[in-house]
Amino acid sequence: MKHLAAAAFVAGALALPGLALAADYSIMAPAGPGGGWDQTARAMQEAMTAEGISGNVQVINVPGAGGTIGLAQFAQEANGDPSRLIVGGYVMVGAILTNKSPVTLDAVTPIARLTGEFEVIVVPAASDIKTLADLVTKLKADPGAVSWAGGSAGGTDHITAGLLAKTVGVDPKLVNYVAFSGGGEALAAVLGSQTTVGISGYGEFQAQVEAGALRVLGVSAPERIAVVDAPTFKEGGVDLSVMNWRMVAAGPGLSAEQVAAITADVQKMAESASWKKTLETKGWMNTWLAGDDFKAQLAKEIAATEAVLKDIGLVQ
Amino acid sequence: MDTFALLMQGLSVAAQPINLLYALVGVTLGTAVGVLPGIGPATTVALLLPVTYKLDPAGSLIMFAGIYYGGMYGGSTTSILLNTPGESASIVTALEGNKMAKAGRGGPALATAAIGSFVAGLIATIALAFLAPWVVKFALAFGPREYFALMVLAFVTVSAAFGDSTLRGLVSLFIGLTLGIVGIDLQTGQARMSFGIPDLLDGVEVTTLAVAMFAIGETLFVAAQGKRAPETVEPVRGSLWMNASDWARSWKPWLRGTIIGFPIGAMPAGGAEIGTFFSYAAEKKLSKHPEEFGNGAIEGVAGPEAANNASAAGTLVPLLTLGLPTSATAAIMLAGFQQYGLQPGPLLFTSNPQLVWGLIASLLIANLMLIVLNLPLIGLWVRLLTIPKPWLYAGILLFATLGTIGANPSVFELGMLLVFGLLGYGLRLFHFPIAPVVVGLILGPMAEQQLRRALAISQGDFGVLFTSPISATLLALAALALVVPLVLRIRGRGQLLAQIASDAD
């Protein structure tokens, strides 16, 4: 009842006078309110409504298990329904593998990659590790002595740490990765010097880096990016780049025309002024990639992720 | 003096009529979502984010803060009157509060909860304004080993506080610990005891278990007794308002609850419910009427409710000073800040002082509005209990079911609610305490994760648990709490313990 009341309040406040709009959309965020996927879904909702792409966009939260619970529900419910969308990302790729999820991304129709964020490795300002090369030296000498604070096991942070070890010739199984639950617990652990380094998306650490409490050792981008004043992994002597991307997908069983129509709507949204403004205020990077290019890229990443998760020992 | 001047400036921002209106909308909405099941403050703020995009930053953040505080107020109402805790932080309130309500003392229970929340909110918000930089340093000193030691202390003190039979209490606790194992293990990403059921991958939801154990279990118990039920619900006995003895027994728990709740709320991995557990255990230890605990002791409502609200203010310490959200609502408020291009963190206090101090000032105003809004409503709320028993319990059943469905629309979740309800009924039938099951589910996974993190960092060396001064102190306290009563009992000086307890305050 309350849900209805709140929804009516929101709908009422958003209702723009005299608009007759195209298709209604319902976007599933396979995570709880507040996280990255939820924010992406709500930003899409806002942009699609503001641009007149759709008159009625709903966001549904189905949290749990790295998005695999929402994905399973979505694949079943959205079959052949062109009004349903789901937000997802790289974390889901890892979660599907580690959870042995019976429903994979093959069960949905990927539409487009929307945004992305690079990973950074940070140390407290007082740490004796000054550069990525220092870290690599330490890691090679005694992998267990370097503890990494990051998000849940098998997530992007863990995968990046594993890939980094593999790239410099250290067995990823030996990486002493300490998983913290979301909400900045990993940040607190690094700030309190509880672990040697912290690894996560730059957004998590940004405020502390700008305040000088944390030092960035390296960024997982292929080239230097504007927001972070720090060398890339490659500049630090580690030939590796990783991006934590977010995407939107539609249900299975859609015709080619339906997929084209959805893609057109999403593209219109992604090119709109309000979406660009959102990217700017949230500090998200535009990583638009759609169609067959996106599908090929996705297949490549799934294969690479499976390989590193096997190396780490999370997937048999 | 500088801080004081900034706070005054903040009050002048928050006292602008339009911002007062936002605060009023916030606290009203917050109280409503706190009372109604299935939709918490986090969801409400998330729903309102797109709307507030058009408002100015100060106004919308003031509204969010109102929702946040309001939700804490509203949550206690259903716990006390209907034994249906809508969030993990009000589980402890249900223990004594509902017993009081059934004995016709629902009015004083609601009043001590409301006034305790006000007192705690007031003190904690002022502490937020003046002590934030120091509190956050203390909170950051807590790493995995310190948290583990804190959890051990919680286990020892809390399990001693529930029920009379240690053995029965431990049995209940272990049921909770077992349920806590279910789901994906954070450290390895592997599923445990989920039996291939996707709904179990994220473990057992605390509120589902609490509502099932408390509300459904009790409804079944009452229904099974039929007309033989000796318990009669008295809507009002004596004054609706708190009497002199209630005040005398409440003010110290309010203050103690605040002192316990605020720093725990400020800890990134603390959690509001941990503070309520400690407060309950402390009040039972210190009470002059320990025999009333379990039968409606007012201290058991006053302390935990104060701790709950103080920790809500505590949560804002890491959010404002570090940009660290430590609760779901704080995470969404962070998203709210970012929506305006503001990055909470060490620089926010210097880059946007009006906003920060406006927010802190509006918390003070929201707190005042809440008590003005809630005290007159108490008379109305207790009328709920005049509803004939069959209707009342049918209503509770409906309320509990709606709440579960609202929070997680899944048939499986509803099935769990019923199964745990039956379990709660069984435990009641054989006189096992209910609360330790829920406590085990909350504390077990926390203790396990923190211990494993500590050992991963030390590469398996258990010695680190004792080399940090904080964790060594906490573990020593836990050992004392465990050993002293045993020694005293063995020496046949149980009366000495009672003496210490009565002298302690």
Automatic annotation (TrEMBL), chain A:
Keyword hit for Disulfide bond: no
Cited CDD domains: PBP2_Bug_TTT (cd07012)
One Pfam match: TctC
Acetylation listed as a keyword: no
Keywords per UniProt: Signal
Signal peptide: 1-22
InterPro entries per the UniProt record, alphabetical: BUG (IPR005064), Bug_dom1 (IPR042100)
Family (UniProt): Belongs to the UPF0065 (bug) family.
Name by which UniProt lists this protein: Tripartite tricarboxylate transporter substrate binding protein
Organism name: Devosia nanyangense
UniProtKB/TrEMBL annotation, chain B:
Signal peptide interval: none
Entries under InterPro entries matching the protein: DUF112_TM (IPR002823)
DUF112 domain location: 20-438
Pfam families given in the database record: TctA
UniProt keyword annotation of Amino-acid biosynthesis present: no
Keyword Transmembrane helix: yes
Protein keywords: Membrane, Transmembrane, Transmembrane helix
Transmembrane residue ranges: 25-49, 61-82, 109-135, 147-163, 169-186, 316-335, 355-379, 391-411, 417-443, 464-488
PANTHER family assigned: TRICARBOXYLIC TRANSPORT PROTEIN (PTHR35342)
Protein name, per record: Tripartite tricarboxylate transporter permease
Organism expressing this protein natively: Devosia nanyangense
Lineage: Bacteria, Pseudomonadati, Pseudomonadota, Alphaproteobacteria, Hyphomicrobiales
